[in-house]
Amino acid sequence: MKKATAEFLGTFILVFFGVGSAVLMGSHIGMQGIAIAFGLSIVAAAYGLGAISGAHLNPAVSLGVLLAGRMSAAEFLTYVVAQIFGAIVGAFAIYVIATGKADYAIATNGLGQNGFGLGYNGGYSMGAALVFETVATFLFVTVILGVTGAGAPAGFAGLAIGLTLTGIHLVGIDVTGVSVNPARSIGPALFVGGTALAQLWLFIVAPLVGGALAGIAHRAGLTSAEA
Question: Which UniProt keyword terms apply here (predicted)?
Answer without folding.
Answer: Cell membrane, Membrane, Transmembrane, Transmembrane helix, Transport
